[in-house]
Amino acid sequence: QVQLVESGGGLVQAGGSLRLSCVASGSIFTINTLGWYRQAPGKQRELVATSTSGGSTNYADSVKGRFTISRDNAKNTVYLQMSSLTPEDTAVYYCYYRGGLGRMYSYWGQGTQVTVSS
Question: Which residue from 29, 42, 78, 110 lies 20 to 30 Å from 23 (Cα-Cα)?
């Protein structure tokens, strides 16, 4: 089992910045992917950014150049630095973990609300 605890969400004005954090605990595999997804009201959950333990990152086109994902493997923590926020970024942001040996396991955090006012 892996537990994911997010923090850092809140209310921010358009053009502002926020930093999300997610701490993973439990049975963490060395080779893993940590990342962030988001779900806006009435929409499906979508990828925001992911980061692998090997150093690769992946971003949704909508956030490229504005969001930066980073991780501290020693602390099993992943961050999402969000800048130039727009109301379209308003959503619940979920931390994601995927790891394993052979069989892969995926876990989700409970989510943190990000609201961007115009």
Answer: 42
Closest residue by Cα to residue 78 from 4, 8, 21: 21
CB 82 within 8 Å of CB 89: yes
User: For tokens 């850092």, what's the residue?
Assistant: 8
DSSP 6-41: EE--EEEETT--EEEEEEEEES--SSEEEEEEEE-T
What is the tens place of the pLDDT at every residue in 67-109?
Answer: 999 999 999 999 999 999 999 999 999 999 999 988 899 999 9
